[in-house]
Amino acid sequence: MNTKRILAAAAVAAIAAGGGVLAGHWVRGGDVSEAGEAPVAQSAVAQLWSAAVTNADGKPQSLALYKGRPMVVNFWASWCGPCVEEMPTLAKLHDEYSKKGIQFVGLGVDSGKNVKTFLQKVPVDYPIYVTGFGGADLARAFGNNAGGLPFTVVIDAKGNVRATKLGEIRADELKRTLDAL
């Protein structure tokens, strides 16, 4: 377990230093088929709706209840410095954009115990779910091949991936993406 954390921390550090291909840049849409859908992204969204997640107390939850709503999905972990740094920004943006119908969701790629302890210290006003380390596979489905955190995905109301970002978000950049939904 400690080895996984050390490797994950090293990956985050490499990404923060610019080592990731996508680090620090929003990636828009994706390769679009004639039907107007990005096949890989559509598959990832389907995986999101069926993902096995729990709340911080370990009770099974379903992300499918968010179908049909524009969403910001943020993959994070309690041991990830940049993840913790961006949470206040995400909370402020959630407050602003929830009035416009945009749902923010945090997916903790961490243990339930760590997420629960973190949320007791740092309250967050948008839903936080626990994916465990399997959340890294879900993030990879959205194109996070580096496996780094934080990783943010913007999905429109039709279930299309509009943008992804590996690394800490900047409010102005995320606002531009959300205003275009």
TrEMBL record:
The keyword Electron transport does not apply. InterPro entries: Redoxin (IPR013740), Thioredoxin-like_sf (IPR036249), Thioredoxin_CS (IPR017937), Thioredoxin_domain (IPR013766), Thioredoxin_ResA/DsbE_sf (IPR050553). It comes from the Bacteria. This is TlpA disulfide reductase family protein. Residues 42-181 form the Thioredoxin domain. PROSITE patterns: THIOREDOXIN_1, THIOREDOXIN_2. The lineage of its organism: Bacteria, Pseudomonadati, Pseudomonadota, Betaproteobacteria, Burkholderiales. The keyword Disulfide bond applies. It is found in: Cell envelope. Transmembrane segments: none annotated. SUPFAM superfamilies: Thioredoxin-like. It comes from Paraburkholderia kururiensis. Keywords: Cytochrome c-type biogenesis, Disulfide bond, Redox-active center.
